[in-house]
Amino acid sequence: MRKKVLIITYYWPPAGGPGVQRWLKFVKYLPDFKAEPIVFVPENPNYPIIDKSLETEVASDLKVIKFPISEPYKFASWFSKEKSSTISKGIISENKRQSMVEKLMLFVRGNFFIPDARVGWVKPSTKFLLKYILENNIKTVITTGPPHSVHLIGLHLRRKLGIKWLADFRDPWTTIGYHKQLKLTKASQKKHKNLEKQVLSNADQIIVTSTVTKKEFQGITGQPIEVITNGYDDEVSEKVEMDSKFTLSHIGSLLSKRNPDILWGILSKLIADIDGFKDDFQLNLVGFVSENVLQSLNNYNLSNYVNKVGYVSHKESVTYQKKSQLLLLIEIDSEDTKCIIPGKLFEYMVSNRPIVAVGPKGSDVERILKETNTGNYFNYTESDSLKKTILEHYKAYKNNTLKSHPIGLQKYHRKALTQSLSQLL
Q1: What is the pTM of this model?
Q2: Is the pLDDT of residue 390 over 60?
Q3: Which of 15, 54, 249, 296 fits a 20 to 30 Å CA distance from 344?
Q4: What CDD domains does its record include (predicted)?
């Protein structure tokens, strides 16, 4: 007999972006491990990104409960539709570029909606689920955030019903980069910290996506913490033809702070110094790109080499990964981003294309790339070695020998990761 597991999440198809992928895949494979997932999601969410192609991955027999949500972003759009949309995506301008409207919206978002703008969903959802859980004899609940307000639903259910509760953190809470940009008062900062500690101290099991986050949370709670990373799945796609140009492709958002001048400078120099490079080179940017990044590319005279694709469906992004000569992974150079392992990393690793990553020294991404032999990782001071590696890849491209040689990827398959999850249930 399968064990019923209630999964409470904000992001669910037709939501696009990386936030939806993790639990869409866990839910897909949980029935293979004697679990019956039941998914609880908002009925009328204000998703910043839509990808209807993901709806085809939801099993027809899966029980999905939808419950209404009221979100302030809908009202905020009356003042500035553009700023409301970008803030809801986590895209925040640099302080010196912020308008008064954006500053006000950030202050209100950070201090009046704690822990986040979906907090209004907590009380009505808890009231509904208290009855539903009892009527359906559910013993285990999983919450996944961000948004971390979802964890508050789990906290209330745990206290009132004594059910087993697993709290899954796809990102940290109070140490994530954008948290520091919310113009929080000291009282608001204290409230965030208090809520974070309550969740971490009351969940029966905490799940995180990186070892760095695990170490951080171990300083707050003595509850058991398990690392279950994101991963890759078997993607059904037509055979793709490799790009004829020497394409470097970045899949996903390139925000203002994720702007690697070190890389742009190297590419500009290679165009000037290496025969044939300027005729072969193309930079594919697949996803949202900030104006700051585009301006930097222009400053390095790279604009004519940029193919700005914009946001595409998940299926299309996989095609771009497989046909590109090189895949770029860029992270902000910060202590706070060492724990960030982009979901796309694992799809990159099974695309059979070499990865070039730039980020903070000592990150989890660096460890995974070395462990799987899927690419090279550089911090922001390693200009010479980064240039050397790109040039080596270019020579391999010219000799038609450019490819990756991965090892030990199977443990990152979504089914293997779901098996690890099932053992915690």
Answers
A1: 0.89
A2: yes
A3: 296
A4: GT4_WbuB-like
Q: In whole angstroms, how far apart are CA 342 and each of 99, 125, 230, 278?
A: 30, 30, 8, 30
Distance CA 8, CA 163 (A): 14
Q: Confirm or reject CATH 3.30.300.20 for domain 246-398, answering yes or no.
A: no
Fold: same for 3-70+110-231+415-424 and 246-398: yes
Looking at the chain, how many residues does it have?
425
pLDDT tens per residue, range 153-210: 999 999 999 999 999 999 999 887 666 667 778 998 999 999 999 999 999 999 999 9
Residue 331 contacts residue 355 (beta carbons within 8 Å)? no
Alpha-carbon distances of 245 from 75, 207, 264, 394, rounded to whole Å: 46, 42, 18, 10
pLDDT tens per residue, range 344-355: 999 999 999 999
Residue 109, H or E segment: helix 100-112
Q: What element of type H or E holds 85?
A: helix 81-88
- CA separation for the pair 249, 245 (Å, rounded): 11
Between the two ends of the chain, the Cα-to-Cα distance in Å is 14
Instruction: Say if CB 292 and CB 259 are below 8 A apart.
Output: yes
Collapsing DSSP to helix, strand or coil, 417 comes out as helix
Q: Which two tokens stand for residue 137?
A: 């004899």
Please give the C-alpha separations between residue 69 and each of 13, 21, 152, in angstroms, as whole numbers.
Answer: 16, 21, 15
Question: At which residue do the structure tokens 């660096």 appear?
Answer: 366
The domain segmentation of the chain, as residue ranges, is: 3-70+110-231+415-424, 246-398
CATH number of 3-70+110-231+415-424: 3.40.50.2000
Residue where the block lists tokens 């104006």: 291
